[in-house]
Amino acid sequence: MKKRISIILILIVLLLAIIIFPSIYLKNTDDIEEKIGNKTIYTIADLFKYSYLELTEPKIDFLCNIENNFSIGNDICHIEVESHENKNYLISCYLEENEIETTNLVDKVEFDVKLSEGKNNIRIEGEEIVKIYQREIAYIEPYEEQFLDEYGKLGIALHLIRVDDDNQQSNIDLLKNLGIKYVRIEIRWEKVEKNGEFNFSQYDEYMNKLEGSGIKPIIILGAPGNLIGTDRMVSSEEELDRYLNYVIAVSKHYPFVQYYEIWNEPNFKYNNNEGIQWYSRMTNEVSNILKQINPNISIIAGSTVLTGSSDFIKKIAEKGTLLTSDSYAYHPYDISHTDEINSTFLGFINQHYQLKNDIGGFQHFDITEFGLSTNTNDNVDEEEQAIRAVQQNVMINQYDIQKSIIYNFRDTGE
User: Degrees (nearest 5) of the Cα angle 320, 399, 347?
Assistant: First the structure.
């Protein structure tokens, strides 16, 4: 009898140990972690709780009239909540932390949420509803044409081949209603030439939609990949001829394009006297060829970044690009972005403003990339990026900058 009682006690202790203390290790825990927290070891009680939630989660559908994450002109977000169970749920709709409405859900309820310009966080939740609906929607007032609008300077950079976009027209509409005047786009050499033949099909859809939109494309001519050797820079007569063939092919395929930028941040690659000589010659010859095709084409040279930026531009100006280019561009990044008053950013602008005076004072200057990167600091969020973009754009407007391009439209940069 005592032996039987001892066995029962041992079994009770083991059962309590299994329930109370972590005992099971799960390798594939993503779904469970989403439900009950970031754990890799669970008790039986945890697993029972998880299973119970899965089994009892209400079958509820959410339908929103706004398909994208933004709405232009329509400031009403209409949400339908439909239950497939014969049960009464008390649910609430919130905009940010403000409760819009609380009601009973039996079959179907509808909420109309009035959006404010900018970012709106909407969520629907209930005491018995495990599945919470949440959306972040940006509302944008339609852009109204303004006096001297054609002289607007603000633009944005795009990486077309890195974005899987099923609704390109909606993004063009978005850019127009944000007041964007320029988009800076790579037509990557390595992507359009194969065995001496050119194919622009992966760019055509977006470029054709862009034509006639009122937004002016700035095309970067570069990104050779392995077409001209492992150094990926023009450094021989043969390579220069191939590059010029690519330039001509792009300009003839897209005759409506007026702005061309010669390479991106060439001071990294063309960083010695021989490299500067090749870059200057490349720029001069591209300018001569394209202006024969269309005299209204504008050539943007430089596009430099960080240390040595102004020195590189000064050297290529001495080698003829001052006469053959229509503007010089630079990218005044503050990669530390710890200074709240943007003094590093402003220092770059003042440095290049002085350079403009040093080379005669008549050459136009563009900023074809600016903004705050999340790549160099994980602590940067979208709100800080937006604050810096506004601050820096206000500073740019105090100087004689012809075009200012935010980098970039999607978080696809490197």
Answer: 85
Write phi, then psi, for 21 (nearest 5 degrees).
Answer: -100, 145
Tokens 């005076």, residue located: 357
Q: Mean pLDDT check: name the lowest of 30-34, 104-108, 340-344.
A: 30-34
Contact 353, 367 (CB under 8 A): no
Residue 390 to residue 342: CA distance in whole angstroms: 11
Query: How crowded is residue 64: how many other Cβ atoms within 10 Å of its Cβ?
Result: 15
Residue 170 to residue 119: CA distance in whole angstroms:
18
For the residues 12-27, what does the mean pLDDT come to? Answer: 52
d(CA 357, CA 359): 6
What angle in degrees, to the nearest 10, is found between the helix axes of 2-20 and 44-56?
60
Residue 193 in tokens? 């030439």
Residue 40: per-residue pLDDT: 45
186-229 confidence digits (pLDDT tens): 999 999 999 999 999 999 999 999 998 999 999 999 999 999 98
Contact 406, 156 (CB under 8 A): yes
Structure token pair of residue 128: 């018995």
Closest CA to 189 of 219, 164, 231: 219
- The Cα 106–Cα 94 span in angstroms is 19
Structural tokens at position 259? 């702005």
Give the rounded distance of the alpha carbon of 392 from its chain centre: 18
**Interatomic CA distance for residues 264 and 369, integer angstroms:** 10
CA distance 240 to 237: 5
Q: Taking the CA of residue 303 as centre, how many other CA atoms within 13 Å lie in the half-sphere pointing to its CB? A: 26
390: left (phi over 0), alpha (psi -120 to 50) or beta: alpha
* Mean pLDDT score across all residues of the chain: 85
Please say whether the beta carbons of 207 and 219 come within 8 A: no
